[in-house]
Protein 1
Amino acid sequence: MIPANFAYSRAQTLDEALELLAGADPSIRVLAGGQSLIPLMKLRLARPERLVDVGRLDELRGIRDRSDGSLAIGPLATWAELLADERVLSHGALADAIPMIGDVQVRNLGTIGGSLAHADPASDIAAAALALELELVAKSAARGERSIAAREFFVGPFETSVEPDEIVTELRLPAPGSSASAYRALPQPASGYPTAGVAVALVRAGAAPGRSGMEASAAWAGCTIGVTGVGEHPYRALDVERAVLDGTAFRGAVQAIARGQRVAADVHADREYRSAMAVIMARRAFEAAAARLD
Amino acid sequence: MLREDLDLTGAKVGCDTSQCGTCTVHLGGAAVKSCTVLAVQADGSTVRTVEDLAPDFEHLHPLQAAFVEHHGLQCGFCTPGMLLSALDLLARSPDPTDDEIRTAIHGNFCRCTGYQSIVDSIREGGRQMRGQRARSWSDARAAATPDPGADAGAAGAVASDDADAGVRSAPTTR
């Protein structure tokens, strides 16, 4: 399996990479770890005319604390690097999801920024990014930096709100504070991709008096739910979140987890089964996150 | 490149799409699937292949000897990848549990053995290596971190640090 012909440019600096992308040419793809893009190119499901390799840009590497308590993750952080970082693993949903991604070899090269930008509709990390309210910074030569909330990031299958002249330059992960999170998925046994995967982050009522929208009767002051493998792209289950914050028991509220979605159907799982599995994975993630608060 | 230009045919072409793991090599000290690395991405880095385990083809690496002793292979097609994934694990965790071993070879398919004898081989190979630290790759790993600024000449210098371990190393500039 040999990719179609393509040109290759290794950027020496971020500015150089942004210049190479400045024409917003959709036939140019950014190469990070390559663990998703290269197999797709070999299968000729992706045929970029040029790769801009950002894999050696130290500016996009590393994990550091920000002054507001959040974590700044360089998009080139590999899964192996993330799994070795206690600050990352303090987020239950990440500690659950990252070991489920690929295998050891893929985790040694694959990067979190590359994976998010690739935007596979069944990406494990996407569910965690949504539930943990990750913020992505994208930069272009023409317009500089802008911030994108995870829930605005995924817009279609393999499609994000990052423009063709932009590169994801930083991921900002809010401090866990008084929340706890978990990720549960049903991996398809051969591919490892989730048939349905759900990340849930919870804050108990009374634990964070500053959070708004809290009813006196609600058990939860914070509830964010990221769903992957189910719809056309990873999404936040906002209806379920609102119902839970309004005091509906999770067990009932979660029935709406696939509401409004075009649920994917394939040889492994039809719509009904996949929707049912989404409910079960959500319930398990909810129970695991709640248990981590105790 | 590894197989046809450098004649290092230990790493196999299996699925060629990052599934099966028989193409596994170490890049900058970590196991990777070489089918999913462009040669140009490895420019200036140290690449180690299964040939490095027994450079003289006579004295097997203790892990290889354990595979022979514990029936860790039948047809042998997956073995190069199994060995290099196991060495990645043993460098991080010299005395792994069976669960850790199974996680480490999650990305390596074997269609013959049913895996149990491979797990046995890696466990026993690890035990042998703990007794023979001089042959361990863990020391070599520390010297093998990729240097993004390095050119092909510098990669040769990295390899020479491991001369007494009999390391063969090929910079993959192309």
Protein 2
Amino acid sequence: MHNLIREFWPSTVDGLTLGSIYALIALGYTLVYGVLRLINFAHSEVFMVGTLGSLFMLHAIGVNSPQTGFALVGVLLLMLLAAMAVSGITAVLLERIAYRPLRRRGAGRLAALISAIGASFFLQEVVALRYGRDLIAFPRVMKKVTLFKIGAGDVRNDKLIVFVAAIVLMFVLERFVNGTRLGRGIRATAQDAETAVLMGVNIDRVVVATFVLGGLMAGVAAMLYGLRFENTQYIAGFVPGIKAFTAAVLGGIGNLRGALLGGLLLGLVESYGASFFGSQWLDVVAFAVLVIVLMFRPTGLLGEALSRARA
Amino acid sequence: MLLELKDVHVHYGKVEALKGISITVDEGEIVTLIGANGAGKTTTLKTISGVRPVTSGSVTFRGDNITSLPGHRRVERGLSQAPEGRGIFPGMTVVENLEMGAYARRGSQRKEVPADFERVYQLFPRLAERRSQMGGTLSGGEQQMLAIGRALMARPQVLLLDEPSMGLAPKLVSQIFQIIREISAQGTTILLVEQNAVQALSLAHRAYVLESGLVVRSADAHSLLDDESVRAAYLGGAVGSGGSGGSGGSGGS
């Protein structure tokens, strides 16, 4: 017990950092699910290729030592752009190649799910064959320093960037979905696709938009992951992907704020669980919490609106 | 002629839901489709709106063949629908639902959107009171008003109404029908699908009687109101009672 007390603030900081990455990935699951009722299992690979995107950007611009000041800001932005571009494009290609042809032919959701799993393996193996199966290290682009303390928890610059970026993006995404025409089309389609068509919503465009948005968010998560953990691998998307999916369900799949809440909560629970039971129990704790929450709230924490929407 | 369906066949899988429907709607008219459950009334409206693909036949609107035009493009052309079951977006407010009705209007057409909000609020003062309430929390009558108001936000040339009286108390039904008359008087052409045949026939100019995917009668609405065989089949019993025994073999498509 006193382990948890001693570790409380450090665990909180780590939990929020990890949870932010989960939340960003979870947005992609939740957006696509909301519109297509499809679990895009290849989304974890959309994230994974994003980490490679930001790594190759570092190679391309020849950065292999910590930067400071404007140079650092520039490097981080380039990493971000590369990851977002690679993830976004991959997500769109996925929709075009793996899902749309099935949708056009009226295939069921199960067929799409299998296609998703196939696409997931395909992307993993392509990366494995091209870049090997070992961990690939990122060069350190930033000196990691403690900015301030919360209790006994050191708030390091990279962790703070991760957290702030997730919150800011969540805000931007909400603004987009609630404040733009296309965003309203996405919401309408998620709530009632056939009626959305009767309003003049182009469903195909909405679907592409959700994949693009989800891909961009996964790209941001990928860049932040690279910054925080400084390595990647052909299978680097698997665990974060599963956790993000869990976070999306925990928060109420289909609900954007639910994805953020679920992600942060899952990160915290994992982190606390690890310091209380030992880190080997991390996944057990995470999924135990998921099961318990779903027993009492089958639609997830904020999932009420969706169940109403589907009724 | 504003809207014309010519020998339209529609299938759900292998089941033929429409077996060659031909219908015309002229400018300024109120035309009603009546018939029992499963006669193909809703399918006809969905086909006109482009959310059900036709197997054969054609849909012509304002002289253009729109048979293969995607549903979302038909709204821009001037066809809008208040669907069966109302189709209110439950997680959107009344204002957001109405705004969705104007989704297809872009560029210079947006200028008149605020005026159309006012027009809808005038037709349905209740909606003005409920502006910021979530669609899913409205009563059935309010949802129906919202569905009609939302369809009007598209500034349609033809307004398609699918069972606006469904599940509403009689008093509300006559209120809704009064408003439909008003919308018509303001110059919008209306194609109305109803099970409540008496109300529909007393409102409409012309009517088609549908039976298992076919038009079995087409006539002046008032003459159908007085017609014995139609009365027996559709007007006698309670709303929704099966009309499968309706003979009405005379007349034709």
Protein 3
Amino acid sequence: MIELRGVSKRYDARTVVDDVSLVIEPRTVAGIVGTSGSGKTTVLRMINRLAEPSAGTILIDGVDTRTLPGFELRRRIGYVIQNDGLFPHRTVRENIATVPRLLGWSRGEIARRADELLELFQLDPAVFAARFPHELSGGQRQRVGVARALAARPNILLMDEPFGALDPVIRAKAQDDLLHIQRATQTTIVLVTHDMDEAIRLADRIAVMADGRVVQFGTPEDLLARPATPFVERMVGVSDRSFRLLSLMPLERFVEFGTDAASDVEPLELDAALDAREALSRLLWVGAREGRVRVGAGGTHGRIRTSRLLDAARGASTP
Amino acid sequence: MTSDTPLPAASHLAAGRFAPDPVGVPIAAVLAAGLLLLPFATLRANRIVTGEGLSVLAALPVGAATGTIVLVTAVGTIGLLRLPAAVRLAAAGVLVAGLLLAVGIAPPHLVASGDRLARVSPASGFWLVLAAALLLALDALTRLRPSPLARIALLGAAIVGVALVFASDHLAGLSVMREYATRAASFWREAAQHGRLAAGSLGVALLVGVPLGILCARVAALRGPVLAALNVVQTIPSIALFALLITPLAFVAANVPGASALGIRGIGAAPAFLALVLYSLLPVVANTVAGLRDVPEAAREAARGCGMTDRQSLVQVEMPLALPAVLAAVRIVLVQNIGLATVAALIGGGGFGVFVFQGIGQTAMDLVLLGVIPTVALCFLASVVLGALIELAAPGRGLPR
């Protein structure tokens, strides 16, 4: 658990972070979203003491971070920065080995861990371990950057705009991969981004920052349905928040059984893996009033009524 | 006539097929001028009088003269044609070898065997043709873009070739080699002294300059004044700096106990060494600062973020990334110092300059050459080897900055 208690950061007369308090639960993903200059990166950098708070306390699992020297604290916390920050003079394997080497792991242990991580990130060690960063694509570099941060099995991973340099297609893949790895490793992730869609997609809870303050800290549903201030409203995008809200809902929540199918129109076949937003979009596209999904291995059919999806999109009356 | 008529295209094609190589034209011109208009060798009654310039035909026996003319013509033609770079390089190599062979034939041909005073030297035509051959080789190497290790291998082959020529005594009749023969022991002594001055001052400059550069990169307030002061040192002419150091070093030698036992004197090697160190500091400090400031901010941030201490970040990340820049300084300094160390002889510091200044004093130009040729060769050697090292030191980053 990461706790920020009344944390502020001032540079001379300028207050960059103003009295921020947050509690980030273990094994969750917390997003910090804000415009540039909102202080979100500074909050992240204060957690591993790359920046020292001017006031307030930060506790990790109940222990004040100031009880450790900064560099030792940072060896226990994974850190991923924008544009990967790989060491250009070191190979992929040496880059991944950075923190384990600083911690004095044995050579065999380091080599095993590097290979294990490369495989986890779908990079064949035989092909990629000896390459230099400039010989990799942007997406591969990003994965190596995350692998390096996870090398010493930290409980906490801090990420500063980790997907900022990637094109949209690769970014979506990288985000999915991160979620899978987070579920597998149970790492607590703090992710700074200016992209609300990314935060909604990845984070369990989102802190929205403006002018050094946290204006709202809540689940994505909270932010969409009950934005605390006009600024949060703008950040979540009032005009299409209906769809964003739907995108958070799995389709199975809307499945009904047993009722008679409306006989006038042939129901549209839908894939159960879709989210509510995608299902609604397909139904609207063909003008269907309901769809049909196959649930479970038995092949039972369930109904999805377009009207229920529209109700859910109204926000105030979520099912 | 409109532009799409076939005639201009056809004539363009023809021009392309018969157009000579752009670099080959001046080289061929220099080869022709050197061979036909200028003397190939000089014959003098003794080592200090002015001599008489002899053309290729006069300086060499008929067979050797004809061979030389044919060889130069052939290589000039190869230079003019658009042939592969490897062929051009081989042609240049053959020409250099042929020239050395030819010039060695001149002394026994021109001087009666009993005459121990007469001197034969290569003349301007020889030097010009040699320079053109080296230019052709250099141009071919630039086009071949050999890897660093291949460059060092080629250099090694060239050194072995030159060493074989000297070992064969084929050139022993030339005046410069006779100057060498009478002072072989002092030649190698001064060579060692020259090496000590150039390399030793570089070593001290690195020991002082790299830490100073690291300090300047970190402390912005120090950077301006230090670099400005070193810049001022760089503008002082070398003879003036040597002279300026004589007084303080003489004072140190006289007043600091043990200083003179260490070899510190007002004149001699000490002021020369110190002056070379001072000249070396600017490139070393400036390049260390530039190399460290060019380290990507992301790499520095990542080093801290991974939990490196300041020292670990410097040693493991920042200095390795700045290494090509520091090596570039080593290259500049070594080439500069090998040249400047020649002047040390003026204040009794030794080195190849000894022969240069003795030769000037005696108006014996071949003695001057005995000092100049090895100095130039050493500069070239240092430059090629360090150029290759710089490329090897930047793995995975392609060409150095």
Protein 4
Amino acid sequence: MNWLINLSGLALMALIVWWFWLAGSGKARRATGGAVDIIVDDGVYEPAVIESNAGEPLTLRFERRDASPCAEQVVFHGLDVSEPLAVGETTTVTLTPEQPGTYRFTCQMNMYQGKLIVH
Amino acid sequence: MPTHRLPIQGATCQGCANKIRAALATVPGADEIHVDLDQQRVTVEGSADHDALTRALANSGYGAGTDHSDAGITDADMSGAAASDDDIQLAITGATCASCVRSIETALGGVEGVRDASMNLADHSARVSGQAAPRALIRAVESAGYGASVIDDPRHADQEREQREQAHYRQLLRHTGYGLGVGVPLMIWGLAGGSMTVQPGTVSQALWLAVGLITLAVLAFPGRSFFVGAWKAFRHHNANMDTLIAVGTGTAWLYSMAVVLAPGLLPEAARHVYFEASAMIIGLISLGQALEVRARGKTSAAVKRLLDLRAKTARVLRADGEQDVPVEQVQAGDRIRVRPGEKIAVDGDVEEGSSRLDESMLTGEPMPVSKAPGDSVSAGTLNEGGTLIYRATRVGADTALARIIDLVKKAQGTKPAIGRLADQVSAVFVPTIMLIAIAAALVWFNVGPQPPFSHMMVAATTVLIIACPCALGLATPMSVMVGVGKAAEHGILIRQGEALQTAASLDTVVLDKTGTITEGRPSLTRILTADGEHEEDILRLAASLETGSEHPLARAILEAAETRGVTTDAVSDFQALNGKGVRATLDGHTLRLGNRRWLEQEGITLALEDQATNLSNEAATPLFLARDDRILGVLGVSDRIKADAAEAIRRLRDRGLTVIMITGDIQATADAIARQAGVDQVLAEVLPEDKAREVTRLQQQGRKVAMVGDGINDAPALAQADVGFAIGTGTDVAIESASITLMSGSLHGVADAMAISRATLGNIKQNLFGAFVYNSLGVPVAAGLLYPFTGWLLSPVIAGAAMSLSSVTVVSNANRLRFFKPNKADRRTADGSTAS
């Protein structure tokens, strides 16, 4: 009985490590020319992974449905871009990433998390 | 080379043809495009794909058989944006002819929910009535080949936004009420000695089942957002604050429910229920969020204040009379009347009238500024005096005010390096906390006291609930937001959060002379008179000579004459001799005004030479005035140092900074100015292109260097410095050229900016320290680290209270910065902020 509980505890820990850190991060939405609509609600960006090409202008339209202050601002780390989002409104963010790489975009508190993969 | 011929429809004007050309030009391989409006046909030469061309044409809205109405609009668009019953007004771009109007109206009419759509070509707007989503309307217009944006009535939009925020606040308070309403009575029952355990087969089991179901309702309704958020994040392989709360409260509830339903499975001592914890945590965290919403409203006060500066309407003078129009519809070139007490609506140049404008909201400069024809005015400033008529030059997002708002908003989102560690930690924070919670539970299970199960549950839940990623994530951005906003209130625009951190650690300030320490334009500073002559006469003669001259020295003399109310006489035979002076005839006498060497060449006996030499030593240019062959007087013209420059430089030196002046002037002139300004060191005879090299040289000595200059000529030096300050007068300064821009011309801005930076950095450090200490003490204590020594084990309820307090504390501490006064800080010795 004891070993069962210990084992399931350890298995749960392994599962957490795998799911949140090792298993990738869901389906990517590729931005091809047009704009990508991102819904900001319930603690997640939907879609949360955007792919784009270096040097191409990228238009992201954030529609903030979540009124909690967490969602108030979207910050693109490493791109020097941030934009406040108004509740119930769609805010357009345009940026042109010049260098290929993976840029995180999050709310100020890092609770909303998204990734911009630039090829 | 293949040729494609495609039919078009609805294109009747050159504007439409341009649209088609632009649309087709995006297709790879479309080398040459001919639009034939008569034949309604387009010919494309090149290797382009025919289907791609057809698609591009259809998207442009002119494809034959293109149905505008269904262009790319999905159900999601329809439900997404808030559908309103009001009329929606759209600003349309790119429409140039009547047929464009038809295709736009058709496109709008095809959107679901539109009752009526009409386009006004005159003011490029379209009014749509019905219940359509604004986004769907914009899409429809865009796919017809034009641009559209919703014209908001700003007042209306602001009200709506406030209502939404209020509604959210009230909702959070309701959630608090439900959570605490269920949790508090249960807690009191427990504290009053009531049994919190379940005896199988008794009435208590049924009662606890009822309590469990009520708690479930609390989790399912007020706590719904945590669970939905946790689940959605989980699916994205993300974990956030919702995850911690959902897992924590969920675990407590599930354990308690297991106790209620199958008490027999657990030893008697472990048959304790924790429903009160679940309900209390939901209530307390909702309360914390409500308080945070309140506190946060204040952190963005600076931007709100700037937004409030925008005028709502402008009185536009049109051929058919004056008309108040919404400011969004004002176009460059419009003539606008502004009456006393009104705000300037857009940037422009004054054409008629004169007045004084209060520009303090933009520049931080408290004195009103006089405006006359030819002067420029900035949106958001207040007309205090008479009526002005000005011509709009920059409207909408191009006005200085709009650019400032944009800059401040963007800067508020950036983070100085000091916040990076917190970012890295918070990115992996939540999964780590979950791992710690499980590990703690296992330790309690294996080596903890009896009964193991309830201890496991309490330790794990408490760890999950007490951990606060919010405080960590909020620590830096909240302070930056308030600090950048505070700076903006003082006319200091900080472009990146990074500059805040660097500005706090500067030790050397390099000041450009011209325009930074001095006013940047010459003015008359001294009049020396020969025996028997009066200052006023000399000034009148000099001004009469210089009337109509555009030379900067001439302007200085004319300005002085105007301020002193000296009238000028008409002269004849005016002659300007480049690099020498001017000559003219007045009442039969020959008047000359010029430099010493020229007058000597003209054979005039000089006088007042010693005094003139003194003028030169004070960095002034002496101009000799002669009537026929007699010297009447000498006028000293110099680029005066700004009235408050010396005081501002003293403030910088009091802060322990080395102040260096850099200039292209010869050493003697530079020394003269330096003496007046009180700088530590002078770098004279530096060519403009060498300024950046001087900055580098100082940096190589290990100094942290700020460069202060005008932003245009000094751009390379500003970029080279650790922090570049662009100093400007008024709002025309190039705000993109430096990391910090001082909107007022005053050097006090440099000291103010440093004071604000130090205070902000101090605030960030307090916040980060608090957040790190909170989490690194809270989590181990929650896990039960103190239990072996003291027997303490935190209750999950206490953890919930601590957690919601921690983020409120961070936001409140950042708010303290709002009361910081940069010019008072100099009298303190510490880093400008008091510890809380």
